[in-house]
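Here is my example:
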Amino acid sequence: MKKKSIKIILIILSMLLLIAVGLGFYVYSIFSTDFKINKTVYIYVDSSRNYDSILSQVEKSAKVANLHHFEQVASYFNYKDKIRTGRYAVKPDMTVKELVLNLINGKQTPVRVTFNNIRTKKDLTKRLSNQLMLSDEELYSSLSDTQKCADLGFDTLTVISMFIPDTYEFYWDVNLEAFLNKMNKQYNRFWNTERLNKAKELGLTPVQISVLASIVEEECKYSDEYPVVAGLYLNRLRKGMLLQADPTVKYAVGDFSLRRILNEHLKTYSPYNTYIFQGLPPGPIRIPSIRGIDAVLNYNQNNYLYMCAKEDFSGRHNFAQTLSQHNENANRYRAALNKRNIFK
């Protein structure tokens, strides 16, 4: 009887062990569920913290092998009550357990934010909102707020010069205040002692350098002309001449596609129209690149006062020291425009 009882106990223990092993394997299979991807993808959790949206991304973007398994793991860790905003990487070798824990702990992957070839404040805010959780409207409103811009050391027309085109790392859900403060610190770091001294030698502030660089960049198709054009405009500023920069007219008119500046355009009454107002415009007409800013600071010392697009439409310029030389260049260019039937 005793042997029979022992045998029964052993059988029961064996069955329990098998059940435990099976259950353990089942649980392991759930927690180790993977993703059918061959490259890293990202899950975005915005301020709505919408669980259904997260599930949709896990299924469609991350291609989880078994969505029900993800939900079971999420439930086990009570993820619904711990949702945090952010951008989370899903790598090919990850499991649902690893992803859920990253989501709960807010373990994000930084975003490399870039912006270049930006003309207007609206263009800037759209570009940034496409890369970060920041709202286009909220960012634009902040950069149009007089007091906020003053706190950053600018006004609403010059604040875009604070954004130095480069690559920056941010967490996708960075808040507006932290974002602007970091950009302000990067701006102050960019304007180091060497650059500040060069600007001082020119009698210009960093913002004025950016304004001039923005005009230079709009004038030039090729960057090797930046220092030459910068030198030309500095010559005109020193002589108290109107800059008469065509890109400022395009900005004033609100049409950068203009290929021919007509008398009607030159009459546009705007502080950005340098055919009417002396000196630099009140703000940049685009966000200048680092190369453009440095071209102004390290301008080519020349005696040019005039420039005109070359008649071969190469995108380069003919430069002149005298008005008579410039008129000859301008006549050739106008003749080329007429020949091609370009009247606006």
In short: The domain at 27-105 is CATH 3.30.1490 (Dna Ligase; domain 1). The longest helix spans residues 2-31. The two ends are 110 Å apart (CA to CA).
